[in-house]
Predict the 3D structure of the following.
Amino acid sequence: MNLRPTRRDDPDINITSLIDVVLLLLIFFMVSTTFTREAELQVDLPKASAEPGEAPKKQLEITININGDFFIDDKQVVNAKPETLRRAIIQSIGSERDIPVILRADGRSPYQSVVTAMDVTGQLGLSRLSLATSQPQSSDNNGQPPGDAKP
């Protein structure tokens, strides 16, 4: 008769699947954090290489200067509030809602001012919106901008 208790083996814990899940989460977070770096890029939006088109006879021109001030057909709007801009646009175009809108914004103007102008024109039903850009200066110095020529 055997009175000694039988010795049981310690249970093994298989952590292979836990390690796999942790590594997958680590890879996911590493990849997803790299997407936030796109906002750090410095871009210069107001240049385009397209040839300018023919301007229509009647159009609404909204200009935004570097301080975010609005000008409707070269007349300054009193302030930069959307309600004031809306009233100035309605006063300028009357009941016409099919005229094209040319939005001219300084390259260093606040982005919020551009979005405000686009939002107000959209709310008024003006759907033919164009953004005015300038062509980049041509470089005749073997790919270098003018003024950077090497002797």
The chain has three helices and five strands. Strands lie at 60-64, 70-72, 75-76, 101-105, 129-131. Helices lie at 16-33, 82-93, 111-123. The radius of gyration is 31 Å.
